[in-house]
Specification:
single chain, alpha+beta, Rossmann fold, Dna Ligase, domain 1, 5-stranded antiparallel sheet, 4-stranded parallel sheet, 13 helices, 30% helix, binds adenosine-5'-triphosphate, binds magnesium ion, ATP-grasp_carboxylate-amine, 5-(carboxyamino)imidazole ribonucleotide synthase activity, EC 6.3.4.18, ATP_grasp_subdomain_1
Length: 350
Amino acid sequence: GSVIGILGGGQLGRMLAVAAAQLGYRTHVLAPDAESVAAQTASSYTRADYHSRIVLDEVADQTDVVTYEFENIAIGPVEYLSGKVPVRPGPQSLSIAQDRAREKAFVAALGGRTAPWASVSTLEEFKAAIREIGAPAILKTLRLGYDGKGQVRIRDAAEVEAAWADIGERPAILEGFVTFSHEFSIITVRGLDGALTSYPPPWNEHKDGILARSTLPAPAEIARHWAEAATLAGRVAEALGHVGVLTLEFFATEDGPVFNEMAPRVHNSGHWTIEGAETSQFENHIRAICGLPLGSTALTGSHVEMINLIGSDADQWPELLAEPATHLHLYGKGNARPGRKMGHLTRVRR
Ligand code: ATP
Ligand code: MG
Ligand code: MG
């Protein structure tokens, strides 16, 4: 059988490795240490030194196709690898999705709506951007942000200096604050042959900038934007030449769906698909990158809910299983820090 390389050692890599094993593939994980949760589940593992050609050559030698489970990896090593082994999705998807300015411009050029935004690389530019966009607004680092990290909300122009210091004076974008009723995501999959499919959109509720819960079917305020958002996501996947899962996050507003950000990978808001869809996002990602036909994205029940188990929720886990229809997923992370995603649970009502 073939070997799939996975760059990154988190829970997404772990769930990809499980899906790959079910389809008869072995996985080789490149991760910081053998205790990484994905490495524990993979067939083999190389310690991550993304900038070492020796390490990358070893990964290329041992794999038939390479994918990634996080986008905060330098583009250089991924481009180097893609010269030796197919990397899916390709470096183009990665380079756009890891830069908030590029992803917003890319999606806007394809007809997507975004919040008003401006690139900010100095305090002077930040002040000019606040004058143009106004407050409230959100300052986000251009790169490397996740789970609301690297973001500051600005209620008033007087907070500019403190906000600039807060994000470490790094290149950033300033976004106008969007008034929305709900958040949702489109999880789309593009096959090696260009086939496109997407899942019904989950309603995503966040707490402290972190996804707390996804619910399906989505309420009417989201459902009315479904077709427009899914069409846009398909267009983005095609324009990127993307192969695999691509996730776009949206705000549901009076004016239509407003694009927030994208991830060139399986996504936390798609974890419900393991039990709640005919084919999980992880299996469909593996199918796509291995050139297999894509599976059905239909719901398996009338109602599906995914709840993230974050940080200190740990003590409640055993009692959660007292409810027989609850599926518990624990990621095998040792230390529960506040804000750390430790697992999730899914409930499907038939
Ligand atoms: P993720 O973990 O999803 O990658 P992230 O750190 O990249 O998160 P965003 O998705 O950009 O951050 O923002 C996190 C949350 O903050 C959003 O889901 C939304 O609730 C809120 N938010 C972000 N940008 C805006 C905006 N322009 N207007 C209103 N709310 C926003
Ligand atoms: Mg993000
Ligand atoms: Mg987000």
